[in-house]
């Protein structure tokens, strides 16, 4: 009986967890037609980067592809993701117009420390972003 | 209206006109997004005399690829096309009940629209000056019907104005025109523009403005039968005892200027939106099907091009099956026309010149989003008397377009329920298909409260998640500097497609670029 109870409890716990994963909180979204209004790295990622790099940074492949940001050693040097976000490259559009310096720094710090990346050194700062524009 | 002509000097009046005109001009420049040139179609091609055994390979079977195939095959060339998808048409595409669509990331939608209903996720309207596309429709028997751009009974909506209540287009249009006409008429009537307008012209101008703006005999734009004849009555004209109409209340100029509603008053005046414009009966992909009937047998489907290289006077494309399951195969030809969008081409192994490579690598594709929602009944017709046309809003859905087909039918209808660009489009792209529909419902229900009661099903296409374009249309970073070089033969290959045109994001641009490539290629070959 006890066994059954705990496994049911586990079941009840996992259902909302899954549901949460698929329903994103969009209260800070859709506030301006030409810029992103989210401020923290996770929300900025979810609001723009996830459109291409996918919600868990896993990337995607069809005739064209979006590289995975998960477990990505290219994120080691802080300046590289900053430069891509501001200026774009190939099929990645420049996003420097959608995001201000603070937002670029936040989202770069987010991808460098999530999805299996653990680059906590050389944090991106708005100053650096500004100089790289 | 609070305007007092005595209190306004000529200078401040002209300044005011300038401010209004400047804002309007700025907006129209924004909304046309540089899409404002007419087609340079010069009539049907009739190429003759292809040398025997000349092989042309065409990459991509969208409208550009199929146009090139059709014309070159007719000229006597051996033509083959390689296409990634299991169908032709590319962006010229329609989703119907029974279709399923898997976007990048593996999100799959099973479309559940009723028979006869559809969503055009990409192109949805054909201007009457897009001569090449219209001519192919005529040749291939693709039936066209009017697309309704302007509907005076549709809405203009601003969540921050008029207590968030949608206003009928006819009301806002009449009020704006009336107030502007009144201002100008009164200034002219008082010789306020004596330097700019002669006395004789001034009289005519006042008469014209009176008619144009629905002004009364005092040149006032006010509540009354003159204005209601255009903006509608509060109690409508009728028959019998109750037949006498009551005028509706006009809005003040200030109310309209302080809303965003004036921004979409001239959208339908844009060169490419001017009535009459068209759509194919049954969905935009009827055009793709028309082409496919002609050249379908030349197409290898499910073929993902992975490499393009030149050797001697030959060009070879390597390809694998679209699911990446098969071994690499190759196709060699004397010449190639490449219509693969540059977003995708930039990721393909190739040996184009450094100059061409640089151009390919500098063209990201725009973000765009469309959602179609099917409702159990056509409440916009039954409850609100809106037949076709477009409502515009400042909400992130940007617009709602009402189906200009099967009007007055019972049963379900599909609205184009969202079509944003820019930051809003990026954010819709980042949501799952279910979350997008939830958001579209949340916003759309602020304009049509029937949304939740009448909801049946929804479908959406987020263009950055389209596996075979990675976006909506090609954005030149420096078109002035790069365009001509992108049209040049590189090795044995010519580029064609929407991106190689000054009509970007139009099918006409794709077709014209292909016609131009084909003509130049034929000249090159036959002059050797
Ligand atoms: C949201 C939206 C709205 C639009 N509205 C309008 C409108 O109202 N009116 C209008 O006229 N136009 C409109 N357009 C523009 C129109 O759709 C395009 O200009 C036109 O369809 C582009 O044709 P194309 O042949 O150049 O490219 P595509 O149609 O993109 O064709 C390219 C083909 O290449 C294939 N391909 C890609 N990669 C590979 C590979 N590796 N190997 C093999 N094949 C590959 C693709 O599958 C595709 O079939 C709109 C477009 C969008 C996205």
Automatic annotation (TrEMBL), chain A:
Q: What Gene Ontology terms describe what this protein does at the molecular function level?
A: electron transfer activity; heme binding; metal ion binding
Task: Show which residues constitute the signal peptide.
Answer: 1-19
Instruction: Please verify whether the record's keywords include Heme.
Output: yes
Which UniProt key words apply to this protein?
Heme, Iron, Metal-binding, Signal
Coiled-coil-forming residues are none
Q: Which organism is it from?
A: Vreelandella sedimenti
**Which Pfam families does the entry mention?**
Cytochrome_CBB3 (PF13442)
**Is GTP-binding among the key words of this record?**
no
Q: Which PANTHER family match?
A: BLL4482 PROTEIN-RELATED, CYTOCHROME C DOMAIN-CONTAINING PROTEIN
Which SUPFAM superfamilies does the protein's record reference?
Cytochrome c (SSF46626)
**Gene3D superfamilies in UniProt:** Cytochrome c-like domain
Where in this chain does the record put each Cytochrome c domain?
Answer: 36-115
Q: Report what the protein is called.
A: Cytochrome c
Question: Which superkingdom does the taxonomy of this entry point to?
Answer: Bacteria
Automatic annotation (TrEMBL), chain B:
The keyword Transmembrane helix is annotated on this UniProt entry: yes
Give the metabolic or biological pathway: Plant hormone metabolism; auxin biosynthesis
Q: What is its EC number?
A: 1.13.12.3
Q: Which residues cross the membrane?
A: 12-36
| EC top class, as a word | oxidoreductase
Amine oxidase domain: residues covered: 63-521
Q: What is this protein called?
A: Tryptophan 2-monooxygenase
Q: Which organism is it from?
A: Vreelandella sedimenti
């Amino acid at each position: 009986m006890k066994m059954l109870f705990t496994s049911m409890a586990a079941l009840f716990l996992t259902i909302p967890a899954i549901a949460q994963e698929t329903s994103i909180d969009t209260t800070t979204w859709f506030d301006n037609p030409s810029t992103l209004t989210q401020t923290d790295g996770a929300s900025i990622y979810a609001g723009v980067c996830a459109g291409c790099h996918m919600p868990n940074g896993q990337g995607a492949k069809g005739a064209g592809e979006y590289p995975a940001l998960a477990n990505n050693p290219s994120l080691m040097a802080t300046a590289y993701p900053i430069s891509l976000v501001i200026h774009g490259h190939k099929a990645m559009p420049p996003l420097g117009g959608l995001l201000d310096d603070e937002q670029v720094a936040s989202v770069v710090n987010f991808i460098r420390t999530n999805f299996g990346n653990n680059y906590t050194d050389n944090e991106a700062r708005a100053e650096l972003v500004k100089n790289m524009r | 209206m609070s305007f007092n002509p005595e209190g306004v000097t000529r200078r401040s009046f002209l300044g005011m006109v300038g401010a209004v005109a400047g804002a309007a001009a700025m907006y129209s420049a924004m909304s046309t997004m540089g899409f404002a040139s007419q087609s340079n179609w010069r009539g049907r091609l009739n190429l003759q005399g292809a040398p025997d055994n000349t092989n042309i390979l065409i990459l991509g079977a969208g409208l550009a690829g199929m146009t090139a195939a059709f014309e070159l095959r007719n000229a006597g060339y051996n033509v083959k096309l390689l296409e990634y998808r299991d169908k032709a048409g590319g962006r010229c595409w329609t989703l119907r009940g029974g279709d399923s669509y898997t976007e990048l990331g593996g999100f799959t939608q099973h479309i559940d629209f009723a028979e006869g209903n559809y969503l055009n996720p990409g192109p949805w309207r054909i201007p009457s000056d897009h001569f090449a596309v219209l001519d192919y429709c005529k040749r291939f028997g693709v039936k066209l019907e009017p697309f309704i751009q302007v509907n005076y009974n549709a809405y203009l909506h601003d969540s921050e104005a008029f207590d968030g209540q949608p206003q009928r287009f006819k009301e806002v249009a009449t009020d704006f025109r009336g107030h502007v006409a009144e201002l100008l008429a009164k200034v002219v009537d008082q010789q306020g523009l004596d330097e700019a307008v002669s006395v004789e012209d001034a009289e005519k101008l006042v008469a014209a403005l009176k008619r144009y703006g629905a002004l009364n005999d005092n040149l006032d734009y006010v509540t009354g039968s003159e204005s209601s004849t255009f903006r509608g009555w509060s109690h409508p004209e009728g028959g019998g005892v109750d037949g006498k109409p009551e005028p509706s209340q006009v809005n003040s100029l200030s109310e309209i200027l302080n809303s965003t509603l004036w921004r979409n008053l001239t959208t339908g005046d844009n060169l490419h939106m001017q009535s009459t414009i068209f759509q194919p009966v049954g969905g935009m992909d009827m055009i793709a099907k028309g082409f496919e009937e002609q050249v379908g047998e030349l197409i290898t489907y499910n073929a993902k091009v992975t490499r393009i290289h030149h050797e001697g006077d030959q060009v070879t494309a390597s390809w694998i099956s679209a699911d990446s399951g098969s071994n690499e195969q190759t196709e060699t030809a004397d010449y190639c026309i490449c219509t693969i969008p540059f977003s995708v081409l930039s990721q393909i192994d190739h040996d184009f010149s450094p100059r061409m490579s640089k151009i390919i690598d500098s063209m990201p594709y725009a973000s765009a989003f469309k959602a179609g929602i099917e409702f159990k009944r056509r409440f916009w017709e039954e409850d609100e008397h809106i037949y076709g046309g477009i409502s515009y809003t400042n909400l992130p859905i940007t617009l709602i377009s009402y189906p200009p087909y099967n009007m007055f039918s019972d049963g379900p209808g599909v609205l184009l329920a969202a079509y944003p660009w820019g930051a809003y489009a990026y954010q819709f792209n980042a949501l799952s298909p279910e979350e997008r529909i939830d958001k579209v419902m949340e916003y759309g229900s602020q304009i049509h409260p029937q949304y939740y009661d009448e909801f049946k099903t929804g479908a959406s296409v987020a263009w950055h998640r389209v596996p075979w374009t990675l976006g909506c249309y090609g954005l030149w970073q420096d078109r002035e500097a790069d365009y001509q070089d992108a049209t040049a033969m590189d090795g044995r290959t010519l580029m064609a497609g929407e991106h190689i045109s000054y009509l970007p994001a139009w099918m006409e641009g794709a077709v014209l670029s292909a016609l131009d490539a084909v003509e130049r290629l034929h000249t090159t070959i036959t002059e050797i």
